[in-house]
Amino acid sequence: MPSIARLILSALPLFFPVVSIVAASASLKEGVLPSYHYGAPIAVECMNRSVETGEHIQNAKDEIQWIPFPTCNETGKSLEFGYGVEDEMNCTISMIDDPFFHLLEFYIHSDAPLACRLPARPPAHIEMVGEKPYEQEYIPLVFALAGTLQLSHLHISTHLNILLHSTPKHHIHPHDSGVLDSGAAYSTSPLSHMDGSFTKRLVIGDPLPLSFSVRWFPTPALPKTEGKVEWQGMGGHIYASTVFYALVSFIAGVLVSGVYFFGIILPKRLKGRGLGLGGATPLAYGLNGVGNGWGYSKRMD
After folding, report:
1. Which pTM was predicted?
2. How far apart are alpha carbons 299 and 259 in whole angstroms?
3. Are residues 7 and 128 in the same domain?
4. Sign (positive/negative) of CA torsion 189, 190, 191, 196?
5. What is the pLDDT of residues 176-233, one digit of tens each?
6. Which domain holds residue 151?
7. Count of structural domains within the chain
8. Based on the domain organization, do 163 and 251 belong to the same domain?
9. Which of 74, 124, 157, 176 could be disulfide-bonded to 146 (CB atoms 3.0-4.6 Å)?
10. CA dihedral of 47, 48, 53, 54, whole degrees rounded to 10
């Protein structure tokens, strides 16, 4: 029996190096570049556009000029999202002046998109020796703003859904850290101006009350239906890596249990009963309720 135990123990190192290598490579990648912590604010900035033509404006370096999203009355700051935080948010723009009103006409008529962006990672504060300095990366967030244009006013859909995706990780925990992968923003119920439930009739000088339903997903994939993957938002999905770790843990558990049983329990049992494997086993007697073996006796009706 000890030879069987040694054989099983010798097989254990074949499984655990795989886990160690995967964990080491993942931790190395996470450590080199910065990641958002749960709840970290992510500011929204948008493309600066000309109110006459709707074309984007460039800076002195011929780069697209980005400006903060308009200030929200509720917070006194520009619009921002908390990493991993699913919420219903309000952002009321205090007064729509004439230039902004004309920009809204461009956005609603799809002559120019309300193109914004989010930093994929927080700013880096540490530079690696011999490595290229970190250059800030961004993901696009285009607001598909819906409504209708009239001669003296416009109707605008005031509620938008915000879907934000993180890059996939080999593990997902509640309140996890991570990096942005992609996002989308779109108006809901754009035709409800007929009853006035989710849209606003807007003229120059009016406030614009916007509301956002923010949802997060831990991978770029959308949830599936029919029980394959449930809609659970951040941290509610199952990945192949999760199955891999569960399988490795199961195999390791089976091996350890086998070592303990064949190396310790079984020899003690056989020694105590004075039985060899060549004779009748205790299970043979336990099945009919006569012997005192390990099996369960069959109930007689």
Report:
1. 0.64
2. 33
3. no
4. positive
5. 889 999 999 999 986 655 555 678 889 999 999 999 999 999 889 887 766 554 445 5
6. 33-237
7. 2
8. no
9. 157
10. 30
